[in-house]
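Q: What structure does this chain adopt?
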Amino acid sequence: MLKKIDWNAKRESLQKVNTSAPRPRKAKGDTEDTIQAKVEYYLNLKRIPFIHIPRPVYAMVGYRTTPQVVKNCISKYLKGVPDIIAFKKEPFNKSIDCIDCSTLLMELKRDNGKVSQGQKNWHKNLVVHVPRSFEEARALIDNWMED
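A:
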């Protein structure tokens, strides 16, 4: 015999669930991954060479199959590395007979994104910019290229 379901009781029990607790607010605007993709696309359009360490490299720390030596290396040396490291060749310096290279370091964050302790450690020793949108990053890149 089928059990009869009291739908009114179900509805009342669902309404009693505590909905007064505030939900975390989602940041407006793009995610960090979207900002990252837009910045990389823009750098490619401008033909600016750059490097970016992809997320799977950092994710290897969590894999059980990754050797401990690799995990230690990633944790020690790559923790907090800026998202984008862009390079700009300076004019040829004839007196020194070399090409100078200028770098732009960017840690991309969304509106409410927080800088981690590892990132702060990098920021202490280097000039790392933290744009919070693609528009900020584009303006930063354009100003850097004009200098």
